[in-house]
Structures are given as structure tokens and as C-alpha cells.
Write a structure and sequence with these properties.
Keywords: Membrane, Transmembrane, Transmembrane helix. By secondary structure, the chain is mainly alpha-helical. It has 2 domains: 103 residues, no CATH class; 83 residues, no CATH class. Helix content is 72%, strand content 5%. It has a two-stranded parallel sheet. Strand 1, helix 5 and strand 2 form a beta-alpha-beta unit. Helix 4 runs parallel beside helix 6.
Amino acid sequence: MTKKLIIINIVILIFIFVANIVTFYGINYHIKFNISYHFPDYGFEYVLMVIFIIALVTALISTLSIKTLNYKSKFLRIFAFVNSIFLAFIIFEGISAYKMMKNEYLKLEKEYINKANLDIRNDQVTYRYAGGLTISECNQNIENKIDSINKKYGVTYFNSGCIIIEQEIKAQEKYAKIVKPYLEKRNGINWEQKMAKEIEIIKRNYK
């Protein structure tokens, strides 16, 4: 019976760590699964701390007289029970976080879809990007010429700052997917390369 209880406790502990990983990806909806890269972010130290506290409390409770069970049996039973509650809590938190983050993304995606359709009607597509502060090497005259070329191709580039939010990036990709056919129809195939060449000529002339 003791061996069976040990196996049950080990399985529950494994499920706790797996559930903790799944919860991380639920909270960070749209982040790609990568154990080695995200390992420091999983918060295993907090999980171990909770398990250690549960073990201490279980050890104290197990000193109480319960039927004819010995100390080891009492400890393993109580430890498994409390860890099961902890596991259920992690699963509940993971599911709740996933639903909330997914709903937020769907709302954001809908906003970008509506914006894409509106920008197409207005013939002015706006690409948002995260890249920190704008470069101030070129004078205002060059920037105005570059903006003029962008507008000729029906696009505007807006720097949204250095903070990169995964959901925002995914929603922007949805926006780009919608406007891409329109821009190709408007400007022709490989229009981005043509625009880049025109901008490069301006920059080169001002060097």
C-alpha cells in the first residue's frame, strides 16, 4: 500500500509541474511552445516553495493520531490529497487565464480586421511596428520625402514603441494578411522592393 501511495504522489507532482507549464502558455496566449527558452519564466521556484510548505504542514498533521495508520501512511495520504487540491487550483487558473486571454485577442483581432477594411476603403494602409525610438540621423526633408514615397504606394509606417506584445503582433499579422492583396492589386507585384529602391536612392543622394 505504501508503494502505491508513493507512486500516486509522484504522479500528482509530475502533473503539477506539467499543469504549471500549460498554465504559463495559457496566460501568455499565442507564445510559441519552447521549453528551453521559457524555462526561467515557468516559475518552478514558486511551485517548489508551495510544495515544500504543503510537505511541512502535512508532516505536522501526520503526527496526529488517525485510526490505525502509521506516520508514513498518514503523510502520503494527506500529502497526495493537498497536492491534488493544489493541482486543481493550477488547472483552474490555467483554464481561466486561457479563456480571458483568448477573448482579449479575438477582440483585438476584430479591431484590426475592421481597421484593415476601413484603411482599404480610405486607400491608406498603416503598418504598425515596434522598434523603439525613431532614428534621427536623416533631416526632416529626407523624412518628408520618404513619407511621400510611402503614401504614393498607399502605406504609412507607425512606430508603436519598444514594448512588444505577442497578441498585438499576431493581430497586426492578421491586418497585414488582409491588406496585402489590396496593395498588390494597387501597386503591382513586388511593390515593396520598388518602394525600397526609391527610398534607398533618396537616402543615398543625401549622404
